[in-house]
Design goal:
The complex is a heterotrimer. Chain A is of the alpha/beta class. Chain A has 6 domains: 73 residues, no CATH class; 96 residues, 3-Layer(aba) Sandwich (Glutaredoxin), CATH 3.40.30; 226 residues, NADH-ubiquinone oxidoreductase 51kDa subunit (Rossmann fold, 3-Layer(aba) Sandwich); 76 residues, Ubiquitin-like (UB roll); 84 residues, de novo design (two linked rop proteins), CATH 1.20.1440; 28 residues, no CATH class. Chain A has a 6-stranded mixed sheet. Chain A has a 4-stranded mixed sheet with strand order 2-1-3-4, covered by helices on one side. A 4-stranded parallel sheet of chain A has the order 8-7-6-9, with helices on both faces. Chain B is an alpha/beta fold. Chain B has a domain of 126 residues: NADH:ubiquinone oxidoreductase-like, 20kDa subunit (Rossmann fold), CATH 3.40.50.700. Chain B starts with 6 loop residues before the first strand and ends in a 15-residue tail after the last helix. Chain C starts with a strand and ends in a 10-residue tail after the last helix. The chains are: A alpha/beta, B alpha/beta, C alpha+beta. Chains in contact: A-B, A-C, B-C. Chains A and C meet through α3, α4, α20, α21 and α22 of A and α2 and β8 of C.
Chain lengths: 640, 182, 232
């Protein structure tokens, strides 16, 4: 009989062996490829509930990469844990819409029911409860994630049931399936959502429109090496894309045809190839259209990616799916599998020898910044999601330094329509500068939240009428990085010539405090800053502290001036779009809802951000004093 | 600045070591020139205990480590037209602020209870004593500060430069050689 | 055939592929910077070297020089913004110069002097960061880390060791070392490593040398950073 210590050592060794077994199995599935690091870490965590040091020990060996690299990646993503976080890891979505739907009280309810402090692990190590950035369930919130699986439509009753399941340690797989049901809530369908298309139709249509001269040869060569240019089907596809005037749906609005052409024309070094990447890292708070496209129109998206591969000459594609949509991984994998069987994906697509293209799905792990295309590519390569220095751009130096197009989910779905019906048809929809339709993710104060597809050029007022919004005070279009629109501007229209949008349309009625809306968004950017550049890393924290200071009732005109100064600095000095736009919600609400800020400047003179009296609390407790001299007033110039 | 009225200057040392005051005195014979333009109000140099309303310049050495520091700083802010942070501790908390990574309870516990050589260790609780703040703060985090003279201590020349700039109505600056944080 | 651009009205020649900062450096014109070092690939994270190119702000260490560019650097606006960035770095960490061995040789401090930084301006974060004294020859004081990643690049690209990396995200970004224990002593780091030579602040400190040169007689005590060359 060994000593207790020996038993402990033996148990640890068994644990280490078991962990190593899991790591080996996962790593082998990913060909021990370090570029799959993020996927490997995510899958190891799914098996172990966290990333124990033994897992990192083993990964060092099987991937042949230094520990610093593994820990650097693991430390970057919010959903990867290098400390135990419990068997049940609950994350409440903390978008402003979740808050409007009562998420704060629900989280308190769960925490008090299960005796756990927010942000901490319960004493028995069973669970942890925390908040996370918008999970994309704004139309059916409030939402939470349990071990990265989404549960929408939370109510007090549902929270109590969840508490009971956790208390009884019921495995997640046995929780009622209805908890996890996510509705599409499509309220208005236009050409995209109403498209009736069998898999392969768009590809066949694209090929059929190609000039007949040398069609087969050029197509086949295109699939293999993206050459030659100026001939045949792929060029016809590119021409259609350019004629379609399709602009990127992720928000920036770059001409898709031009992006594809630049990638096709980018020189390939020996051994290099071109890549098609679909950006499904739908992280902008208030956006959920990609969720719906990937749930019910995945064929359209994959067909668009395949058409893109055909046009630029790519054999490999990636779908980068945000970690919050973990529940879509299996259904999407099944769609890909079916498409391979149907010969519209994989080798010899449509029976064309050499027409090869396949798609891998990579899951993110809680990092909004990975929606930025170069950060997304870094993440795809298994690294920290830090935006790259640009130029060079991904079309020439993308995935593993090879020519890559990165397009939004909706862009690829629209591209499939272009392939199906031609560029001229597509360009005839919408407005002169904004061809086609746009999916809006409508949420907030309205009767019918959900997905609305409109031809470009629809006015804010029209959308508000259609979704049943009343007493609307403001609409945040395109999320916190977009614009906040006040009633005087409700005749403005959605489109690149007026209000461009990635799709979020968040409505606030007169009962809402727009300062608090902006403060929620500032917290979001602070949480999501990647930390690479000084202005964004430190500036978003300073901005958050100042907004909190105003919230806490100790703000003065001095702090307001500081906020304006930081806005300027973030815009001018930041490395990427996150920092550039982090102050947008503040700038917009100051411009349109200044009284909401003025109310918050309750102090005439500079007042400390921290509570001076509370700063004495520890000393009071240690000395047992509570006399007048043991207290400080927080107000400047106040009595001692 | 008008020639006929002397500027009133008050000084104090909060959580500091008086090193900045010593450095101030190091301006040596320039004190005579200075005294043609200023007169001292509350200061360790005069032993006046309160700051007169309408004092022109307050020089604050040291950061804020306890409640009394806060009271004194507020008295200066209320009664001085211009407040100047004098030296590293006033500017960023300095040496005392290096306790900030430790919880105050741990510090008091260690100092009065667990460190060896203390018989009947108890944490002083006399109401006459100011209570320590949980963190040491530079003074600009509690009241508005108009000017800063960095340095540990700032050299006599640096102090002289800033004061003469202020007396001349110029924005104070310190060039290479005068600007030091150490 | 060399091209030129103008920097604050001065004509600066440059070779193909040089960035604005590299060309300015070669021409003897100082642009403030912290994460750039001539021996390493430009990184572009500290943003101190931000200039205005044809009216648009960009980091000069990563922006390739192009013929005819009109670049502004020594403007009040840019220097105000650079000063604010420097102040951000000061309040983000724990920078107590009087008790730092690197004082006088520190590029962060010297840059702050250059920019006339009289105070840290913002509220301090006073983060809780550790000191690692485990290594026989080198002390790590993470309190002063400004996340420039020069040691990361030096260890990876020159020493071939990957002793250092950044982990965490956002304001929680921090430097880590390549050991399960997290201790430098358990890595293969040595004083001879390039990574031991490149820290611009006082994080990576050789032991027993701290005050060989007294304070007051150090590099940036003698000349402002704008008149010195890189390296110690």
């Amino acid at each position: 009989m060994g000593s207790f210590r020996e038993v402990e050592v033996a148990l640890n060794e068994m644990h280490a062996e078991a962990v190593a077994g899991i790591v080996d199995r996962v790593a082998t599935r990913h060909r021990r490829d370090p570029t799959c690091m993020l996927q490997i870490l995510r899958e190891v965590q799914e098996a172990c509930d966290w990333l124990p040091p033994e897992a990192i020990d083993r990964l060092q060996v099987v991937l042949g990469v230094p520990r610093t690299k593994i820990e650097g990646v693991a430390g970057f993503y919010a959903f990867l844990y290098t400390q135990p976080r419990g068997k049940y890891r609950i994350l409440f979505s903390d978008n402003v819409t979740d808050r409007m739907q009562g998420s704060v009280a629900l989280m308190e309810r769960l925490c008090s029911s299960l005796w756990v402090e927010p942000g901490k692990v319960s004493e028995d190590g069973l669970l942890s409860v925390d908040i996370t950035s918008c999970t994309g369930m704004c139309d059916q919130g409030p939402g939470l994630l349990v071990n990265n699986y989404a549960i929408p439509r939370l109510t007090a009753g549902l929270v109590d049931e969840i508490a009971e399941l956790i208390r009884n340690k019921v495995p997640l797989a046995e929780w009622p399936a209805d908890y996890f049901r996510v509705d599409d809530n499509v309220r208005r369908a236009d050409v995209l959502l109403a498209a009736q298309m069998a898999p392969g139709d768009a590809l066949r249509a694209a090929r059929a429109r190609a000039p007949s001269d040398g069609l087969m040869a050029s197509n086949m060569r295109s699939w293999r090496e993206g050459l030659p240019s100026g001939l045949g089907g792929p060029i016809a596809m590119l021409d259609d894309m350019k004629r379609a005037n399709l602009r990127g749906r992720g928000g920036a609005g770059f001409m898709t045809g031009i992006k594809w052409e630049a990638c096709r024309n980018a020189p390939l070094k020996p051994g290099q190839e071109r890549f098609v990447v679909c950006n499904a890292d739908e992280g902008e708070p208030g956006t959920f259209k990609d969720r719906v496209l990937l749930t019910s129109h995945a064929d359209l998206v994959f067909e668009g990616m395949t058409a893109a591969a055909y046009a630029i000459g790519a054999r490999r594609g990636f779908l980068y799916l945000r970690g919050e949509y973990r529940y879509l991984l299996e259904p999407l994998t099944a769609v890909l599998e079916r498409r391979r069987r149907e010969k519209v994906l994989g080798n010899d697509i449509l029976g064309l020898p050499g027409a090869d293209f396949d798609i891998e799905i990579h899951l993110g792990a809680g990092a909004y910044v990975c929606g930025e295309e170069s950060a997304l590519i870094e993440s795809l390569e298994g690294k920290r999601g830090t935006p790259r220095n640009r130029p060079p751009f991904p079309v020439t130096n993308g995935y593993l330094d090879q020519p890559t197009i990165v397009n939004n989910v909706e862009t690829f779905a629209a591209a499939a329509l272009v392939a199906l019906n031609g560029g001229e048809w597509y360009a005839s929809i919408g407005t002169k500068h904004s061809a086609g339709t746009k999916l809006l993710s409508v949420s907030g104060d309205c009767e019918r939240p959900g997905i609305y597809e409109y031809p470009f050029g629809v006015s804010i007022r029209q959308v508000l009428a259609d979704c049943g919004a009343r007493d609307t005070q403001a609409v945040q279009v395109s999320g916190p990085s977009g614009v906040c629109v006040a009633p005087a501007e409700f005749d403005r229209v959605i489109g690149f010539e007026d209000i461009p949008t990635a799709g979020a349309f968040t409505i606030f009625d007169n009962s809402r405090d727009m300062f608090e809306v902006a403060r929620n968004y500032v917290h979001f950017f602070q949480h999501e800053s990647c930390g690479f550049c000084t202005p964004c890393r430190v500036g978003t924290s300073l901005l958050k502290n100042l907004m909190d200071k105003l919230h806490n009732g100790v703000g003065s005109p001095y702090d307001f001036a500081e906020i304006e100064k930081l806005n300027q600095l973030l815009q001018a000095m930041s490395h990427c779009g996150l920092g550039h736009t982090a102050c947008n919600p503040v700038l917009d609400t100051i411009a349109r809802f200044r009284p909401a800020y003025e109310q918050r400047m309750t102090q005439q003179d500079f007042t400390p951000a921290f509570d001076l009296d509370r700063a004495l609390a520890e000393a009071r407790q240690m000395t047992g004093r509570d006399d007048a001299g043991a207290h400080l007033s927080s107000k400047h110039g106040g009595a001692a | 600045m008008s020639e006929n009225r002397k500027l009133r200057v008050a000084t104090t040392s909060l959580a500091g070591c008086f090193g900045c005051h010593m450095s101030f005195l190091d301006i040596d014979e320039r004190l005579f020139t200075l005294l043609e333009h200023i007169e001292f109000d509350r200061s360790p140099l005069t032993d006046i205990k309160t700051v007169s309303p309408g004092t022109d310049i307050g020089l604050i050495e040291g950061g804020l480590c306890n409640a009394e520091n806060v009271h004194v700083l507020r008295e200066f802010r209320q009664n001085c037209k211009i407040l100047v942070a004098l030296g590293a501790c006033a500017v960023n908390g300095g040496l005392p602020a290096q306790r900030n990574h430790l919880p105050l309870t741990t510090i008091l516990e260690e100092v009065y209870h667990t460190s060896p050589g203390l018989a009947n260790g108890m944490i002083p609780n006399d109401p006459e004593l100011p209570l320590p703040l949980n963190k040491v703060h530079p003074i600009h985090e509690v009241v508005k500060i108009d000017y800063f003279i960095p340095g540990c201590p700032p050299s006599a020349d640096a102090i002289w430069k800033v004061l003469t700039d202020l007396l001349a109505g110029r924005e104070p600056t310190l060039g290479h050689g005068l600007m030091h944080y150490d | 055939m060399s091209h030129t651009f103008t920097l604050d009205g001065k004509t600066i020649p440059f070779a193909e592929g040089q960035t604005i900062l590299q060309a300015a450096d070669a021409a003897g014109v100082f642009i403030p910077h912290l994460c750039y070092h001539p021996d390493f690939k430009p990184h572009g994270s500290c943003k101190l070297c931000t200039v205005k190119v044809n009216g648009r702000q960009t980091a000069s260490c990563t922006m390739r020089a192009l013929p005819g560019m009109v670049v502004e650097s020594e403007t009040e606006e840019l220097n105000d913004e650079r000063r604010a960035l420097t102040q951000m770095l000061f309040v983000e960490g724990n920078h107590f110069c009087p008790s730092c061995e690197t004082s006088g040789n520190c590029r962060l401090q010297a840059t702050a002097y250059h920019l006339g930084m009289m105070s840290p301006h913002f509220d301090h974060f006073f983060p809780s960061r550790a000191v690692d004294a485990s290594h026989p020859d080198v002390l790590l004081d993470f309190n002063r880390c400004i996340l420039c990643s020069l040691c990361v690049r030096a260890s990876r690209d020159v020493d071939g060791k990957n002793v250092f990396a950044l982990s965490g995200r956002g304001i929680k970004t921090h430097l880590i070392v390549n050991a399960k224990s997290g201790r430098l002593a358990d890595t293969n780091f040595t004083l001879a490593d390039k990574a031991a030579q490149v820290c611009p602040v006082g994080v990576i400190l050789p032991k027993r040398h701290g005050f060989a040169v007294p304070i007051g007689e150090r590099k940036y005590d003698k000349a402002p950073i704008s008149e010195t060359t890189e390296g110690r």
